[in-house]
Amino acid sequence: MDDIDKKIINALQDGFPICDAPYRQVAMQLGLLEQELINRLKALLDNGTLTRFGPLYNAEQMGGALTLAAVKAPEQRFDEITDIINAFPEVAHNYARSHELNMWFVIATETPEQIQQTIDAIEQQTGLTVYNMPKNQEYFVNLKLEA
């Protein structure tokens, strides 16, 4: 990741324009060509520097809900459990951890009631206990890279 990539990441954390040519507008602000910006974003995603590029919605302000959940997935069933959990459209992302609770995932639903319904369904399909860890308070951390 070079200084231009860092400037791109920093700039895009502050918002993305809603207009006919948003990539062109951002590229111009950064002194780049539109295609160069697009190519760099694609490279950052392809090489894993960025895991996603897209809007971040506040599900709770839209009437929905989010929670962090975890399971103790037996090592011999880890891939199977991963596939089951990831098949739920409510699962936003899933992480393997070096911990007794070795699989952590985020559940995002359209209504708060659907959180427990999703947990119940995951437990039924996996045979595992899902540990629900709803947030007490949310903090926004804005990562800025020195360029």
Question: What do these coordinates show?
Answer:
The longest helix has 14 residues, at 113-126. The protein is an alpha+beta fold and 147 residues long. A hairpin with a 6-residue loop joins strand 2 and strand 3. 15% of the residues are buried. Helix 2 (22-30) packs across helix 3 (34-46). It has helices at residues 3-12, 22-30, 34-46, 78-86, 113-126; strands at 65-71, 91-96, 103-109, 131-133. The mean pLDDT is 92. It has two domains: 3-46, no CATH class; 59-133, Alpha-Beta Plaits, CATH 3.30.70.3460. It has a four-stranded antiparallel beta sheet. It is elongated and about 55 Å long.
Question: How do the SSEs run, as a string of H and E?
Answer: HHHEHEEHE
Write down how many β-strands occur, each being a DSSP E stretch of 2 or more residues.
4
Beta-sheet strand percentage?
Answer: 15-25%
Give the class from helix and strand content and strand pairing: alpha+beta
Largest sheet: 4 strands, antiparallel
